[in-house]
Amino acid sequence: MSLSNDQVGHIARLARIALSDAELDATRAKLNGIFELIEQMQAVDTKGVEPMSHPQELATRLRPDLVTEPDRRDAFQKVAPQTEAGLYLVPKVIE
Amino acid sequence: MINASLPELRRALDTRQLSAVELASLFLDRIDAHNPGLNAFITVDRDGALAAARAADERIAAGTAGALTGIPLAHKDVFCTEGVLTTCGSKMLGNFVSPYDAHVVSLLKAAGAVCLGKANMDEFAMGSSNENSAFGAVKNPWNTARVPGGSSGGSAAAVAARLVPVATGTDTGGSVRQPAAFCGITGIKPSYGLVSRYGMIAYASSLDQAGAFGASAEDCALLLSAMTGFDERDSTSLERPTEDYAAALAAPAAAKPLEGLRIGLPREFFAEGMADDVRAAIETALDQYRALGATTVEVSLPNAKLAIPAYYVIAPAECSSNLSRFDGVRYGHRAADYGDLADMYSKSRAEGFGAEVKRRILVGTYVLSHGYYDAYYLQAQRLRRLIAQDFQAALQHCDVIAGPTTPTTAWALGEKSDDPVQMYLSDIYTIAVNLAGLPGLSHPAGFGADGLPVGLQLIGDYFAEARLLQAAHRFQQATDWHARRPAGTA
């Protein structure tokens, strides 16, 4: 498998990472090297093997539906790039 | 005093030979003197450390001190520390003063440990050399032209250079064990689920696990004992009683203290790929284990070589999902100039993330994208099952598995930084352990041809931490590799 510049550009858009044309070739070359390594996986027949998503077989814990956290909005918004009146500011999304 | 073990420091504090404030000052002064050459710390918190030390002195005076009260330590900068800069080695979090403490940080604060600062690391814990830090590479204290290993390179270098007695780290594919090996110290990654991941900035959540660094297995045991325990804020935290790993080390002296211990040697770890000087050191160390009464048996991990390809699907997949939270809205870097919302995301992320982090996000995005999920992600998860089963089969024939931690000693700064695949392959002996979720430990086992430390890795079954620490401790009682120090630590 070998990725094209178009494919790399598409992945970068999906990942929301701006990639300049100047960076595209170098990024593609490095990604193709990584995928060459990853392709070694395909040599193994894993038919019938149950995928393992996690080291421990855990059931999701449930807890009573109670308020457990205090309001710490001011502390959390102190680290935000832009806030106003307790709201996070972002570029206008809906005209 | 800088080379004292934690039990020795405990005695010195308890007998008022020195105060916690004096001890913290001693190490803070060493950081001031030696950190400029090593770059092991991103943040030094002198004021916070001295305040914590004063509180520790009060506890000692009141007779309520615990094992770690007044003991200085460093946290890898992946752990959120309230009121202190927490960067995760990234420009993305270059201005992030955490509003809360990680669970590990809370536990160690409650134990009275004194945090001197935040250790440098590969950005978002992605790397094996600590060259991927936005705050500059860390230097190996044994030879400052060499890498300290990664991703917890700052923690390992700080302990090796005695800038701090012990430090925390995290290990997703070897990030505690490999830098411990490269820096000539002891490091343990416990079983997945034993230490809460709450407040530990996520890389690959099904693999990430916090661990401990110290000069010896005994120091690691004391630190790890204070880090484990159930935490309801981590959905994968295990509900099991905590263990006192340090108490488990105590045993009457015996001529053959490891009598009955069966050590499995995986054929695949001793095949080609291991450097001759590493092999020689490991063989000598295994002879020592046999002299202490252990027996060795060959075992096989037939799918071990597939651990790296499987890891580089699973870890990037989880990373691409975890790191989607860095969007320049609620915290972290936001680009100065942008148009619409999508443009703000893309530019903020392009500017905030370094090259290796971007590569792993891109790989993860691809393997999870429509049409590729089965071929990559599910195949990797099936291999993960086979790898975990290999360990269980091998552990039918032995109590612990041993081998080299790394194929070579520490390489030169810059040697692999432009070749991600070569960097990935250096983690061949450590990655499979994370995929299985097993505990692993690395301890010093001599030196290579270039005078750099060699690490021996011990791998155990789930929750065999005490057994690993015990075996390493017995080895360290009979040898002095762990007591060797780089220049400048007298």
From TrEMBL, chain A:
E.C. numbers: 6.3.5.-
Alphabetical list of InterPro entries matching this protein: Asp/Glu-ADT_sf_sub_c, GatC
Annotated keywords: ATP-binding, Ligase, Nucleotide-binding, Protein biosynthesis
SUPFAM superfamilies: Glu-tRNAGln amidotransferase C subunit
Family statement drawn from the similarity comment of this UniProt entry: Belongs to the GatC family.
Protein name: Aspartyl/glutamyl-tRNA(Asn/Gln) amidotransferase subunit C
Purpose: Allows the formation of correctly charged Asn-tRNA(Asn) or Gln-tRNA(Gln) through the transamidation of misacylated Asp-tRNA(Asn) or Glu-tRNA(Gln) in organisms which lack either or both of asparaginyl-tRNA or glutaminyl-tRNA synthetases. The reaction takes place in the presence of glutamine and ATP through an activated phospho-Asp-tRNA(Asn) or phospho-Glu-tRNA(Gln).
PANTHER family linked to this entry: GLUTAMYL-TRNA(GLN) AMIDOTRANSFERASE SUBUNIT C, MITOCHONDRIAL
Enzyme class, spelled out: ligase
Keyword Hydrolase: no
Subunit structure: Heterotrimer of A, B and C subunits.
Source taxon at top rank: Bacteria
Record field: catalytic activity: L-aspartyl-tRNA(Asn) + L-glutamine + ATP + H2O = L-asparaginyl-tRNA(Asn) + L-glutamate + ADP + phosphate + 2 H(+); L-glutamyl-tRNA(Gln) + L-glutamine + ATP + H2O = L-glutaminyl-tRNA(Gln) + L-glutamate + ADP + phosphate + H(+)
Organism, as annotated: Thauera mechernichensis
Coiled-coil ranges from the UniProt annotation: none
Keyword Ligase: yes
